[in-house]
Amino acid sequence: MSQDEIRVSRDWLALREPADADARDAGLAAHLARNPPASGRWVVHDLACGSGSMGRWLAPRLPGPQHWVLHDRDTDLLEAAAADLPVAAADGAPVTAEVRRSDITRLTPGDLAGASLITASALLDMLTGDEVMRLVAAVGGVGCPVLLALSVTGRVELDPADPKDAPLAAAFNDHQRRPTPRGPLLGPDAVEAAAAGFRELGAEVIVRSSPWRLGATRAALTAEWFGGWVRAACEQRPELAADAEGYARRRRAMADAGELTAIVDHADLLVLPAEAAS
Hints:
Elements (H helix, E strand, L loop, with lengths): L9 H14 L2 H9 L7 E6 L5 H6 L7 E7 L2 H9 L11 E7 L15 E5 L7 H12 L5 E14 L5 H12 L13 H11 L3 E6 L2 E3 L4 H18 L4 H16 L4 E12 L1 H4 L1
Parallel strand pairs: 1-2, 1-4, 2-3, 4-5
Antiparallel strand pairs: 5-8, 6-8, 7-8
Helix pairs in contact: 5-7, 6-8, 8-9
């Protein structure tokens, strides 16, 4: 696989980071904090780390010294993530980092040896079924907890509703499952597929909803997300484009007036290996 398709811009990552931080399930992080590694030192492998938002969110929630191993294909993002990682854990213990330029769909358990926690954000739905299963096998073979946050589930609720919401949502979800040279993407089916794969390995999988809540207080993100949502739907079903321009114009006017809200559902998975779950 060429991971070029998974690369995203720093501007988009910065725009979504506050919504991501509010959406992630803090209860899963609290579970990890109550169950530190036996060594007392966290070694966290953050897969497809982007600009490092997971580290900025999670490191201050975990007590004890931490060493983050940041994986990504984009060297600019890796540098940004390492430079902006918190320097202190929840109890003031030191936090350090190293970077590894990696194709996360080709990792093996050996690449993750020594990890006491493996994390990723906004990743599963961008992978094919084969890639998700390879990732499950790689991280499941390490035998440590895994926190996979913010995977799209396909559920979008716009308020007030419009008759054109449903066909656009269905077309967008089909776009998320589109064929690629690597195979069809899993899109909103990725959470269920990954959870089933981990359970087959004997792990306990805890799934929590982690929705974006968009509206007037996040006008820029709302506009960027909505524009991309409509464009992807029309790319998947071009016959929707004739009506989409007027629809988008009406919806944008409502958003600008603070009259439109959106819930964009995601899911967080905490995977506990058999020995930790028992």
